[in-house]
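Supplementary notes for students who missed Thursday's class. We covered one full example, reproduced here. Read the sequence, then the structure, then the short commentary at the end.
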Amino acid sequence: MSSEHKSRKAIVEIGGRLHERGFIAACDGNVSVRLSRNSVLVTPTAMSKGMMKPSDLVIVDMTGRKLKGRREVTSEIGMHLLIYRMRPDVNAVVHAHPPTATGFAAAGMALDQPLVCEVIIGLGQIPLAPYGTPGTPELAETLEPLVPQYDAVLMANHGVVTYGGDLQSAYMKMETVEHFARIALTTHILGRQQYLEDEEVDKLVAARQKYMGVNSAAPMPVQYSTSTPAARTKGSRHSESSDVLSTLLRS
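Structure (token representation):
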């Protein structure tokens, strides 16, 4: 784990990147880093993450009680603390609202299509958690079943949360989620999706340990729904999310 000073600078830098890329607007989003077993450095509430200074960040304990800082703690601290409690391997959490991925979340659709090999290697799939009111225990409760399994989750009608062994890794996963959401949307606009076969997916999962940065303790399974057994043929496999979006685009 890095020092508090380095972590403050890193969070400010990532906040700037999120804002510049349009992943957050106004005072949206929050970022945190685990400083020790009992303390977390987190962005404050009611402040643009693109305009922060290192001194604006707040330190809390594992119950969310403020230990240090002149600003107030984000109302979504419970989500961060849940992830840290459930995943000892995680040392950083990023929550943002990247437009395309959040569009999928607002449509009630997971990013679960086996379309891009890099996504299968790095994240498996990006599941969808049910809606939970931001700033309440409901939000953490909706994430709880998914946190041990995945490193990136869409939150229905809300946004995306990603996490990793360090802040750079957590942020890169956010970029991957939004990039994949754009690719998935483009395939729907083109009117065709060519899914990877099961055996191709299995090879990609087996190859994970060969790739730098894929060191998650989560199994990150690659699962997808099919409407019929016949749908499992190349070029015609459809997930539930794919069927819903195709219907919307035709209407």
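Commentary. The first helix runs from residue 4 to 20. Strands lie at 30-36, 39-42, 58-60, 66-68, 92-96, 128-129, 152-155, 159-164. If anything here is unclear, bring it to office hours.
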